[in-house]
């Protein structure tokens, strides 16, 4: 399932480069309205500066992950029809935004299944994956009518249980040593030095770790959903068993060859060799 939920731009029509609102302050190449193609989107739906995103500091582009929603909308929902020269353009953008939410939920649910040992909770997650997957197969009109906020509430309830169980398991397996500091309360750790901090099984959901120093830190079992890792130093850090980590988060962090990542994620080419 994770393979299905990974970006395949070759099967999309640059939907993220058109459907989204861009702001230079958020790390995008220009200020543009939703529904307007990015100036760097070429005729064949390729990004003209894709290889230069890191050098140009375009963290917004680097962090964005559609979780495979682009190719799903392009190849399944619209059966290979592009937004160019059709009356379905605006509708397609809205469907893409809805599909992206569904695919993001599927990414986290699927990982939850893989990380759990409790059969009853795993069964609930499997049922939710089936329900959510069925929604991605609906027609464009049906997708636009979905109450995704209500569906997300049910998904989040299950994900919170996964976080608690995985976190407790990690802490039981790797106890805190006397040399490790406890994590202070809160979620804002911009520029903070967290080396030597006990983060095994920590709940870092929604935390701001922008430019934080996490060098050599063990993040086994730590919940990373919505964590902002822009320019965070994760050189030598162990994120191989971090929970709900995405490719977009990794792309904006500063790592090296000693950084340990989950097998489903790719080591960015911009990292220190």
What does the secondary structure layout of this molecule look like, with pairings?
Elements: H1 16-19, H2 59-63, H3 69-77, H4 89-115, H5 119-136, H6 140-144, H7 148-173, H8 247-252
Helix pairs in contact: 3-4, 4-5, 4-7, 5-7
Features:
273 residues; mainly alpha; 37% helix; 0% strand; 8 helices
Structural class call reads mainly alpha
What share of the residues does DSSP label as strand, in percent? under 5%
Count of individual beta strands: 0
What is the average per-residue confidence, as pLDDT, rounded to a whole number? Answer: 94
Helix content: 25-40%
Reported for the largest beta sheet, the result is:
none
Global shape:
globular
Which ranges are low-confidence, i.e. pLDDT below 50, for 5 or more consecutive residues?
none
Helix count, DSSP H or I runs of 4 or more residues: 8
Radius of gyration, whole Å? 19 Å
List the helices and strands in order: HHHHHHHH
Describe the structure.
37% of the residues lie in helices and 0% in strands. By secondary structure, it is mainly α. The protein is globular. The chain is built from 8 helices and no strands.
